[in-house]
Amino acid sequence: MVLAKDVEEVSRQLGRPARGITEIVSRCVCGRPLVVRTTPRLDDGTPFPTLYYLTQPAATAAISTLEASGFMAELQEQMAASSELQAHYLAAHKSYLAERDQLEVVEELANFSAGGMPERVKCLHALVAHSLAKGPGINPMGDAALEALDWSPQVCKCS
Known about the structure:
Layout: H1 4-14, E1 21-27, E2 33-38, E3 52-54, H2 57-68, H3 71-80, H4 83-103, H5 124-134, H6 140-148
């Protein structure tokens, strides 16, 4: 059950009404939402592939800065050079799909997860959200991005 105050806070963080929240899966150390889990299909019928959505503005800003630095290309190169990393990223992708399908199977989203998985590093926001939601060791690209950030989930920057 998602509390109304959490939906209000996520809406404030996003600057628009929050949609499709099923759970707050990660919180800032102050208790405010950090990552939400969303429905695979929004109320208006629109398919929504992003199961885990990062909402905290300081986190999203820090990740945008990291993306602009060329870090995604570095991760892509690392993955190209390592079959072990490729396999780990593929496992993260399959896990993501299985979790989303437990909520609802949406045919339009078949084999499409988020963040470029399993072959590309496309959106660190989605990959970090996945890592924050599931914990370390599940999404290697999200974990690497978390380590590289100048932002930390252990330090509140909500105000």
